Amino acid sequence: MPYQHNGSEKAKILIEALPYIQRFAGKTLVVKYGGNAMTDPELESSFARDIVLMKTVGLNPIVVHGGGPQVDALLKQLGRESDRIDGMRVTDPATMEVVEMVLGGSVNKSIVNLINQHGGRAIGLTGKDGNLIRAQKLLMEKQTEDGIKTIDLGLVGEVVGVKTDVLEMFTKSDFIPVIAPLGVDEEGNTYNINADLVAGKVAEALGAEKLILLTNIAGVLDENKNLLTGLTTQEVDRLIETGVIYGGMIPKVSCALDAVKGGVVSAHIVDGRVPHASLLEIFTDHGVGTLITNRPRHA
Fold first, then answer.
1. Closest Cα to residue 39, out of 13, 70, 9, 60?
2. 87: closest CA among 163, 7, 194?
3. Total-model pTM
4. How many CB atoms lie under 10 A from the CB of residue 214?
5. Which residue, 43, 76, 158, 199, has fewest beta-carbon neighbours within 10 Å?
6. What is the pLDDT of residue 1?
7. Hey, what domains does the chain have and what are their CATH numbers?
């Protein structure tokens, strides 16, 4: 009977997930959420269900989100533009007000609302809450014909510290923290920080089991455009040196690499355009992205 066949397939999937659920129970996962997964209603709801399911089976998910397109849309509405240099937004004080309003306000609260609608208990934070993310001004160096030049991006920051006690308070309870990537320095200045970097540093500070970066591509591809499903840190270094990993993938892969070298057990670069990508990557034998780990693979 077709129904029984369907039922047995579902049972197989559940059984396949069981050892992963057992292995990761009580462990912390940091998920960077952005890109397509954030603008397609079906993918939004599949992401929210993934996060709720993780929490329900005993994992501790922490969400760090981006929101560049939403910031661009509001700037455009206001008749303003912001320049980008190598993908980084030049952020003057007026732009920073918009960034903070969008990331710390509307985007953060819509993700919190989405997770709550699917049965979770999400709570929204920015890096300013409880001094969660301590930042400093990012000085970007760029190679020019006249040598290395330092470029001022304005109020763009990098992470210098993460107050883990704030997050541990939530992960030990039923709450799911949702973090906007804003940081603050000792003088109280607010900085706009790349969400991948924030996710990586939060994962490092917590000694997380996994860092999951949802992207708009299938993962890390080799010379023939085949997906590389598992890489050691040494293999990633070699792929960057030989130019197989290039352009916009370098910052994302470098962030994954730094996290793993900093003590995160594994980092995953996952296609956020695939419904339930996070669950498939964590709870199935094959996964749907590229896993980067510090541990050498056994033959």
1. 70
2. 194
3. 0.91
4. 28
5. 76
6. 43
7. 17-293 (3.40.1160.10)
